[in-house]
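Task: sequence design from structure.
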């Protein structure tokens, strides 16, 4: 059976406020991106919407792996919904379940071949970071978007020269990025975002010390050269 991976994320400015969602569908060597926005919404609704859109755009005869950093989504769909349904969509305290419409839609689109996975947010997972960026952009703009791009392939690691800017004279905390095997450090998130946004295969992470920086580079298969 063919396998499809779906990476989802949601964002909200104000919570409630203007929100954005993003879904990245990885299949047949491509990353198919969907994103959109909503007014007067919540972060949780955007997380659920992202997962729902992903399921709506994938066939039921495939094995689906959904990856999200939302504990609310993971716990809700794998643990809580059965109890809510039995209790007439009431919580244990008797309150109405929030986002019932989206939970019901998710249940309708979920099937035995759907598997749910929790991933740690902002931990250097390239597709999770990309989904986060798209959701944040939608939360600050208008309209929906869709795009298809090649799935990033691992780039050959290359050792950095000793005394490189990636390790020497660096003030912490800072941001590091790897684009096409080249490591750069950035003093601010805006600088890091400008260097990595929209770049296939780009990796980035905030680090608080030289040891953390070197450990992160090793985890990416890149040598600091020190």
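Answer:
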């Amino acid at each position: 059976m063919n396998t499809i991976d779906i990476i989802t994320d949601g964002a909200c400015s104000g919570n409630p406020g203007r929100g954005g969602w993003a879904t990245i569908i990885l299949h047949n060597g491509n990353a198919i991106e969907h994103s959109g926005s909503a007014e007067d919404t919540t972060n949780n609704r955007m997380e659920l919407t992202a997962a729902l859109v992903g399921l709506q755009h994938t066939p039921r005869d495939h094995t689906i792996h959904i990856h999200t950093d939302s504990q609310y989504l993971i716990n809700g769909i794998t643990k809580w919904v059965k109890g809510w349904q039995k209790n007439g969509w009431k919580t244990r305290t008797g309150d109405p379940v929030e986002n019932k419409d989206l939970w019901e839609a998710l249940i309708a689109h979920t099937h035995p071949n759907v598997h749910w996975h929790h991933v740690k947010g902002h931990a250097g997972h390239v597709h999770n970071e990309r989904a986060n960026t798209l959701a944040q952009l939608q939360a600050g703009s208008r309209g929906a978007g869709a795009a298809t791009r090649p799935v990033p392939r691992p780039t050959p690691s290359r050792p950095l020269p000793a005394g490189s800017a990636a390790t020497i004279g660096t003030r912490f905390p800072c941001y590091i990025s790897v684009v096409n095997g080249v490591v750069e450090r950035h003093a601010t998130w805006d600088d890091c975002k400008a260097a990595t946004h929209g770049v296939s295969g780009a990796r980035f992470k905030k680090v608080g010390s030289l040891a953390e920086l070197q450990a992160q580079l090793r985890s990416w298969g890149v040598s600091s050269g020190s």
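The longest helix spans residues 71-86.
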